[in-house]
Backbone:
DNA sequence: CGGTTTTCCGAACGCTGTCAGGATTATCGC
DNA sequence: GCGATAATCCTGACAGCGTTCGGAAAACCG
């Protein structure tokens, strides 16, 4: 983090570093609050209190409340993107689908507020900025490329896939938050999907009841 | 509407009738507003303006803003319940599944605000009252009974089913509001599900690439 | 140190849901 | 129809919200 080399160019940057650090601190506090009280319950006054500021001072770092949401949106997508990069995708199509489905559903189930922010339109007029949306698009295309690598180029198949995975995630959060009632259906769901799109019944010991 | 018979018991009821009529009028205005501006954008002051009242007068009819949401919640579930009762369910399991899936997804796609209210937790601290929740439960059990009639008694199968249908609905609203990009996948999705749970491959020309 | 930029805060505006108290209105028993 | 009663409505107000303005304070620069 803190470089020991006092570079020539590092003078003007120090202010920017401090600025970004404070920004990060505010965002972390915001995450904590939305996780505790829900996405829509976030208040700038409470957020300022959490970071020991007056509410107006937040406007030094964020142009508006929506800008805070926007950075949280980008945060969440970056996190998901990182997980995509860290994970190893099998050559076996069925296995690859299982991996990616599990990745997404568990990611969604971890944090209700984050899920709402990233995948639902919970906040009245919020629309991600182009920069934040670009991250989301990157995540999306990564997921899509895994599907095509598995031999699924058809748009309808992909839409069906996203519907299936999104359904598992949303039901998990809505009907069994903190549990695994729908998470443990992932393998069966993927098997169902694979049977359908690959046309053949793939032997899968995990799906046996 | 206006009965010509001045019944003996109809004296004290007239007040109640007027009361309920105004309530209905307020709720209709509320529906209109949430449909136009989103569920969370509803304001009691704007609502009062729409029905030509002072904001405080609304409290004669509803104990709080949440109470308004609660009645909208019950409204929506009643509507869905009505559709369930009006529709004819085929004896053929596959056909029955198609019907019920189409019923639900189109219902969801019709009204984003209603969908959020009924099936997502968009409003910070809203929780339906026991009476309203009872309607939702009734809807749920109707859906479930159709599934069992189709020969699906397994809990996991039912959860997979709800996830699939909910996924189609949520994706339709999120990615193609007003369109039919996911609605037209319903038959394919049901076929996929039927193949999986009934164990046999049903001939379905639609899923061919 | 002087000058510049960044950060912070006091005050305020219009909005929100909600409560208390009184006036107005509609209904009831007679 | 009249007085009593209950339902309805409005005036006024409170605390909280996101946000803006203008100036003070602080940090940084040469």
Residues:
């Amino acid at each position: 983090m803190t470089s020991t080399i006092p570079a020539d160019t590092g003078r003007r940057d120090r202010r920017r570093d401090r600025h970004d650090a404070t920004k990060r601190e505010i965002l972390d506090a915001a995450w904590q609050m939305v996780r505790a009280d829900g996405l829509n319950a976030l208040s700038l006054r409470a957020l300022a209190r959490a970071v020991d500021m007056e509410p107006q001072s937040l406007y030094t770092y964020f142009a508006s409340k929506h800008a805070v949401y926007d950075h949280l949106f980008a945060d969440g997508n970056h996190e998901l993107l990182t997980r995509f990069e860290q994970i190893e995708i099998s050559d076996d199509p069925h296995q690859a689908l299982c991996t990616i489905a599990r990745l997404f559903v568990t990611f969604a189930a971890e944090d209700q507020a984050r899920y709402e922010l990233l995948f639902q339109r919970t906040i009245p007029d919020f629309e991600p900025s182009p920069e934040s949306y670009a991250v989301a698009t990157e995540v999306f295309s990564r997921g899509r490329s895994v599907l095509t690598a598995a031999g699924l180029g058809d748009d309808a198949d992909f839409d069906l896939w996203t519907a299936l995975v999104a359904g598992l995630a949303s039901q998990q959060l809505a009907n069994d938050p903190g549990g695994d009632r729908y998470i443990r259906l992932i393998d069966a769901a993927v098997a169902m999907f694979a049977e359908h799109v690959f046309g053949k019944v793939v032997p899968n010991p995990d799906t046996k009841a």
Notes: Residues 11-12, 14-15, 18, 43-45, 55-56, 59, 64-65 of chain B lie near DNA strand C (CB under 10 Å from a C1'). The domain at 65-198 of chain B is CATH 1.10.357.10 (Tetracycline Repressor; domain 2).
